Amino acid sequence: MNDIIKNNQEFELLMLQCDIARKTLMTSIEGQMTGFEVMNGYNPVEHIKSRIKSEQSIMSKLKRYGCEITFSNIASFIHDIVGVRIVCSFLSDVYDIVKILKQSQQFEIVKEIDYIKEPKETGYTSYHLIVKVPVYLNGKKEFIHSEIQIRTVAMDFWASLDHKIQYKFESEVPKVVAEEMLRCSQEIRKLDHRMLDLNMTVNRFFKDK
Q1: What is the pLDDT of residues 134-159, one digit of tens each?
Q2: Less crowded by CB within 10 Å, the N or C end of the chain?
């Protein structure tokens, strides 16, 4: 571990603040989803997960950015130490959840990235929100940047597999593997649209009753 991070009280305090922010986010999101379910009789969420980025991952990301490993660079450039992933069934659910989250008074949305409408070159699709979460500790108020990812089950399956493949290769993923992953992503996007159409068809049967 880098000496700047190891046994650094400032870094330990940041990690504590991040954990508080993670818990605040989870409580807020779960509360909003429960409220939506009560009002609409439907919960769009399949499951929610959260994590705190490891020290090794933080250092690796700074190196990819070409930044020196310092506490100030961690605070300035790493905005996803806290991560929350919301997985839902249908494409329409993604945008419903985004709309719900925008109503929250517990955090402030500072950036949105729609990788569903504009996927990454690798084929990655998801909806990202960068938010600022207020954290109160030792009589002080600090804002912790966090990332919320919203995606369908199909998108999550692809992303999980892509992560495992990336982890296996120390350098760049071979072209043949990258091209096949891209094709799989394109098929998954088609499947998401088909499942959404199917869900709309099913719902029409119940509306007619």
Answers
A1: 999 888 999 999 999 999 999 999 99
A2: C
